[in-house]
Design goal:
The structure holds two protein chains of two kinds. In chain A, strands 1-12-11-10-13-14 form a six-stranded parallel beta sheet, sandwiched between helices. A four-stranded parallel beta sheet of chain A has the order 3-2-4-5, sandwiched between helices. In chain A, strands 7-6-8-9 form a four-stranded parallel beta sheet, with helices on both faces. The mean pLDDT of chain A is 94. Helix content of chain A is 46%, strand content 16%. By secondary structure, chain A is α/β, with parallel strands linked by helices. In chain A, helix 2 links the parallel strand 2 and strand 3. By secondary structure, chain B is α/β, with parallel strands linked by helices. Helices cover 48% and strands 12% of the residues of chain B. In chain B, helix 1 packs across helix 7 and helix 21 packs across helix 23. The chains are: A alpha/beta, B alpha/beta. The interface between A and B is large, with 64 and 56 residues.
């Protein structure tokens, strides 16, 4: 690990808070509702990040705190009770209700755990209540998913059955592909967490082998370990290399030979390499700067360098769990500069000084950088697009080659005047 | 506590950001956690700005709460001032910081800067975005001009004569994330200039603190959007005697009324009144015969106060529509909206709940909806044409082309924007009408989508009732054939009337003759 350069930075940050992860979590579990207990800012944040208007009635909402709720906590609990009753009366199809803490609810110490406990008793057999915090004073962007999954673990029954548990939200089509490949490898008992229905939680125990699809699940991993699960150490399934190592690690845990893995995935790899070529042509030798946001930055940097031959200027990450990221960091090239945390102004100074070909950043920064002549890719797209697995490697590369290609088209003169 | 699935307005500090981002040489230090930085995307993505909003967020974290968050505020203020060198500093807090009471404004004032500092106290748990914008603009003007209050005489709106120059006015209210403000400003300046009136300052859009200090060089203020500028105009009137306009120049009648009002306030004779009637194509387009079909079209209106009230007037008096619903999400404008609704004999809907708006829309069964982007979506689900007239902003509301709402060109834009969706509605019926013709290519996609359950969709209702109406009346083949020959736009009415007649007379089967009998009976 010593070959990588670690830095820490503090200062003003430009990142989403954990509430944002509701945007993909609610799609994964259509029978669940996410009720943020927060302010108008929280409601405005989620609708701005999600473009909510396309839903007649979305499966998430905000119980907006008002002045009278701040005056006395007892009243706030009562008010929340009333809001939940109204909501359940209106939406009887809800099976699980997530009470999601926010910055203001954390600061006034609104005890959502107690509220959830009371509600669980009252609605026993009808709706289950869990709580977690998506507040920006504790969580960044994808960490919201970590909180939501961790909150579900106590509801998972125990079982000593041997199984592969794939953990982290995946696009449904990607999940189906993975399951098919695992079955071909000879692993038949596979479950996903989060499941597609909030009520169909997998059972877990000492023979559960956990394979992570996302790098931001530190707390979930810790609690799964406490329940006796074995965590399979692997890089994350982004790109051909990461996915191959990921399958190999799973196979090893199930005592399946490497030979068998290669036999199954070689055709996929060959196909993917072919598809990757045209993107690599564009990305090769281009210099990349990743600003912190999704915690996918290290895996993306590994993929874009090792498989697309991009040069890494700086890899920002909002938070670094060196243990979880061990396998990824080992695959990074020498002297990679990782910066944990952020001082957005100083970081933007470094962006300008280093004159990168492409910057991965949040939506607030993309157009201003473009206006300065710097090509960008917004990081939020990474959590909305199916990017995992060997079959998706070219699509993942495409997310980064497209802005460069577009830039090329718009600055070139290809048609002569006749 | 209020359950909110979607909100028309953001929190008040977003309103403050709208003022700061609209202006030059201003910086806003916002004591707020990291998630609040999402607000930048409103400006950089929706408004497509190529600059970041001039905002430094302190982004305090849970671990800071045990320590000294006040020190963190000061550190951020110091860095922001050194880096951005603003001429005026705004300091405030978002909802969470309001709870920890660090009083960042007071801290900033104690740091020994020589620039003016505006301490923004925007109660996040009771107020919303437009109020925040209005309060910020007002506090900024007050801070920059309060020292001149005692030393200045009241401004005489007629002084331009003595000074031997054209009259000067300020245009107050246009801001980023305001509906078509960018183009309204150009249109209004052009109109004023044609009338021999100069624009002194436009603010907040494009203004610097220096410009705010020169506001009192003008004779009167134009209050372009009451939501944002009325409090400021009122303060300038109270302290400097500056009169301000009340008419919002949206629509022909209001634009003319506005010009009149400006002339009266400046005691400038209006010599080209007749000419004004012909400045826009709206009056003639509305009078031309093909607009006859607009008469009495049922229209439902919802938006911010300024645009909803103006839309109601245009709909009723300039296009000949019937206003069947009027509402706003701006509580601050509720009184005016209620008054207009009363004049129109409808009940005003004052709400921030889009589901209530959708319900009201269903109940009033309009033929056209004029609303926000949210009403556009609701109308789409209901199969009703819609035109967007108000914020909250969507990337579509910042068109590349010149597209004001105010003045002559604004009236042209409004005619096109409101009438085209209706024409598309007609087109929809034509598609129904001609879909059995052999030239018709199936799969023609119209903008309304195919799942829409418009009750005006004659074909769908035909299908249900032609064979067997709900009262058990049978349409015979000859009856059905005759019905299809009836022009589509009256077919629904003919069908209902014929069935009503059949029930009245106890006729079990409707033939072609029954149709004519019914026609004669009801004529």
């Amino acid at each position: 690990m010593s070959k990588v350069e670690f830095n820490k930075e503090t200062g003003p940050r430009e990142v989403f808070c954990g509430l944002t992860s509701i945007v993909w979590l609610h799609r994964r579990m259509p029978d669940a509702f996410f009720l943020v207990v927060g302010s108008r800012t929280c409601a405005h944040l989620i609708q701005s990040a999600a473009g909510v208007m396309i839903f007649a009635e979305p499966r998430f909402g905000t119980a907006i705190l008002e002045e009278k709720d701040l005056a006395g906590l007892a009243d706030a609990h009562e008010e929340l009770d009333r809001v939940v009753n109204d909501l359940i009366a209106r939406r009887p199809e809800i099976k699980t209700l997530f009470l999601v803490g926010s910055c203001p609810s954390e600061v006034i110490k609104l005890d959502l755990a107690t509220v959830a406990e009371k509600l669980n008793k009252r609605f026993f057999g009808q709706v289950r209540f869990v709580n977690y915090s998506g507040s920006g004073i504790e969580t960044t962007f994808t960490q919201g998913e970590d909180g939501a999954l961790k909150a579900l673990i106590p509801l998972m029954e125990s079982s000593d059955e041997e199984k592969l548990l794939v953990v982290g939200t995946l696009a449904n089509n990607v999940e189906d592909r993975f399951k098919k490949i695992f079955r071909n490898l000879g692993i038949s008992n596979i479950e996903s967490f989060p499941p597609r229905q909030s009520t169909e939680l997998p059972k877990i125990g000492k023979n559960t082998k956990v394979l992570l699809t996302q790098p931001y699940l530190s707390d979930t991993v810790r609690d799964l370990k406490h329940r006796g699960c074995e965590i399979i150490s692997a890089p994350f399934p982004l790109g051909i290399e990461g996915s191959t190592e990921w399958f190999l690690a799973a196979a090893k845990a199930f005592k399946i030979s490497e030979l068998k893995v290669h036999e199954i995935i070689s055709p996929l790899i060959n196909r993917a390499k072919l598809a990757l070529e045209s993107h690599k042509e564009i990305l090769k030798g281009k210099r990349l700067f990743l600003l912190p946001e999704s915690q996918l930055e290290i895996s993306l940097a590994r993929f874009l360098h090792n498989e697309c031959e991009m040069d890494l200027i700086e890899v920002g990450t909002p938070y670094l769990n060196k243990d979880l990221m061990k396998e990824e960091i080992n695959l990074l090239p020498d002297n990679t500069k990782i910066v944990e945390g952020q001082h957005v102004e100083k970081q933007l100074d470094r962006v300008r000084e280093s004159n990168p070909d492409l910057v991965v950043c949040g939506m607030g920064l993309a157009n201003p950088l473009e206006a300065e002549g710097i090509s960008t890719k917004w990081s939020i797209e990474m959590v909305f697009s199916p990017i995992h697995g060997i079959d998706q490697a070219a699509d993942l590369a495409g997310l980064f080659s497209k802005p460069l290609k577009r830039n090329q088209i718009l600055t070139s003169k290809t048609l002569v005047t006749h | 506590m209020e359950l909110t699935l979607w909100t028309y307005e953001g929190p008040p500090h977003v309103g403050a950001m709208r003022i700061a981002s609209s202006m030059k040489d201003i910086h806003y230090v916002l004591h707020a956690p990291q998630g609040d930085t999402y607000a930048d995307l409103l400006f950089t993505m929706i408004e497509r700005r190529g600059q970041r909003p001039p905002v430094t967020y302190t982004t305090f974290q849970a671990r800071d709460l045990g320590g000294d968050t006040a020190e963190l505020v000061k550190k951020n203020i110091k860095e922001a001032v050194e880096r951005f060198k603003p001429k005026t500093l705004l300091v405030g807090e978002s909802c969470t910081a309001e709870l920890i009471q660090d009083q960042p404004g007071a801290l900033a004032k104690g740091m020994g800067f020589d620039m003016p500092i505006v301490n923004l106290e925007l109660p996040a748990y009771s107020k919303k975005e437009n109020w925040g914008a209005s309060e910020t603009f007002y506090q900024l003007i007050r801070t920059l001009l309060k020292e001149k209050v005692s030393s200045s005489d009241k401004i005489n709106p007629l002084r331009w004569r003595e000074l031997g120059r054209r009259p000067k006015v300020n245009i107050l209210g246009p801001s980023l994330l305001g509906f078509r403000c960018r183009d309204d400003v150009i249109e209004i300046q052009r109109i004023l200039s044609e009338q021999g009136i100069d624009t002194n300052v436009v603010a907040p859009l494009g203004a610097s603190p220096d410009d705010i200090e020169r506001l009192i060089d003008a004779e009167i203020n134009i209050c372009l959007y009451q939501e944002i500028a009325e409090a400021s105009c009122e303060w300038l009137k109270r302290n400097f005697g500056m009169e301000y306009t009340n008419t919002i120049p949206i629509g022909i009648k209001n634009t003319i009324e506005f010009i009149n009002e400006v002339h009266e306030k400046l005691d400038l004779p209006l010599t080209n009144k007749e000419e004004l009637e012909n400045k826009s194509k709206l009056p003639w387009y509305s009078k031309s015969v093909d607009s006859n079909y607009l008469t009495g079209k049922r229209v439902f209106i919802f938006g911010d106060g300024t645009h909803a009230i103006a839309a109601a007037k245009i709909a009723k008096e300039e296009l000949g529509f019937e206003v069947v619903g009027l509402g706003t999400y701006s509580r601050e404008m509720a009184r005016q909206v209620r008054a207009t609704a009363k004049d129109l004999n409808v009940e005003a809907l004052i709400t921030n709940n889009y589901l209530e708006v959708e319900d009201a829309m269903k109940k009033t069964a309009p033929e056209l909806v004029l609303g926000t982007q949210m009403e556009r979506h609701s109308a789409k689900r209901l199969g009703i044409p819609c035109s967007v007239i108000s914020t909250p902003m969507h990337v579509q509301d910042v068109p590349a082309r010149y597209s004001p709402q105010m003045g002559w060109e604004g009236a042209n834009v409004i005619f096109d924007d409101w009438v085209h969706p209706l024409m598309m509605g007609l087109e929809e019926h034509l598609i129904d009408m001609f879909k059995h013709d052999f030239e018709f290519v199936d799969g023609h996609q119209s903008h309304l989508g195919h799942t829409a359950t418009n009750k005006n969709n004659i074909l769908n209702s035909d299908k249900k009732t032609e064979k067997n109406s709900k009262e058990g009346i049978i349409w015979t083949e000859s009856g059905r054939a005759e019905l299809t020959k009836v022009p589509f736009f009256v077919r629904g009415k003919v069908k209902t009337n014929t069935e009503k007649y059949a029930i009245l007379r106890g006729i079990p089967e409707i033939s072609d003759e029954t149709l004519y009998d019914a026609k004669a009976y009801f004529s």
